[in-house]
Amino acid sequence: MHDQAENLRQQLDSAKQQPLAKTISFVSGKGGVGKSNIALNIAIELQNRNKSVLLIDLDIGMGNIEVMLGLQAPYSIVDLLESQYRFQDIIQPGPNGLSYIAGGSGLLDIFTMNEHDFSFFYEQYSDAIKQFDYILFDMGAGINEWSVSFILAADECVVVTTPEPTAITDAYSMIKHLLQRNTQLPISVIMNRVSEIKKGEKTAQQFQHVVERFLNYKIAIKGVIPYDPLVTKAVVKQTPYILLNERAQASQAIKRLVNLYTSNGTVVRAKNSSLTFIDKLKTFIRKR
Fold it and tell me: Which of 41, 51, 132, 274 could hold 21 in an S-S bridge, CB 3.0 to 4.6 Å?
């Protein structure tokens, strides 16, 4: 593991100019809908298809990506912001070549980012973004003033919800809030833990119609993921379920989702992405 981490740092230091990564933020209106698990398994499946992926846990202080991986990261995103560690120092190696940055856990104080934090993040991120095909942000449940800037600046926002009425209501509120800030943000939805695929697809379509009717915006339906006992088993074993059993229903659903992000082996990048993530992030920070 140490050799893998050292190789990763060397690659980040010496890699030549590459196309910028596609950034995707995973959000949810409430906790407990499986957002982090979905982001993690999508990241690993992308990595399985020879895409270089960096998964950043931005649920600062309550992060659980390293827990689901059964790993203990020596550094977290907080070290970058509070102690000015470099990205190369805090990026950790995960399974199948995945790179990740932990969110940290057990923080007693609410964490916020000031202008100095953002400036240092700009500098570090600008170097790292050139080395990956995809950078995935696992955002905390709900949003605050600094986290919304990351969501709005991403190439795509994926809202994870379940068919439960409270989850649907919170997902709707999340989308409404984001659209009030940026009507051009590509937003898609993943319906998780559905009892049956067809029922899940119908629920997702109904949700899509409600958003279109009342918010005048048509969200994309990224896919549905069926309830699968393997998911709970994987969490207990601290192994992503797509690695535990790639033939399971949930794993197959993840594979279908990832098909939408790859086309003929290439990265499907956002349309009209003349502005980089950092450019957009700076814009939204100024508007706060």
Answer: 132
Question: Could you report the per-residue pLDDT of 172-227, keeping only the tens digit for each?
Answer: 999 999 999 999 999 999 999 999 999 999 999 999 999 999 999 999 999 999 99
Q: How far apart are CA 135 and CA 181, in angstroms?
A: 22
Which contiguous run of DSSP H or E holds residue 194?
strand 187-194
Place of tokens 């990740």: 100
Higher pLDDT pick, 4 / 215: 215
What is residue 12's predicted lDDT score, i.e. its pLDDT? 55
Mean pLDDT of the residues in the chain: 86
Whether the pTM exceeds 0.90: the reply is: no
257-281 burial by CB neighbour count: b if 16+ within 10 A, else e? bbeebbeeeebebeeeeeebbbebb
d(CA 139, CA 61): 12
Mapped onto helix, strand or coil, the DSSP state of residue 223 is: strand
Amino acid identity for residue 215 in this structure: L
Region of 277 please: left (phi>0), alpha (psi -120 to 50) or beta.
alpha
89 vs 80: CA distance, rounded Å: 8
In Å, how far are 42, 74, 148 from 178, measured between CA atoms? 23, 34, 8
With a CB cutoff of 8 Å and minimum separation 6, the contacts of 162 are 33, 34, 168, 191, 192, 193, 194
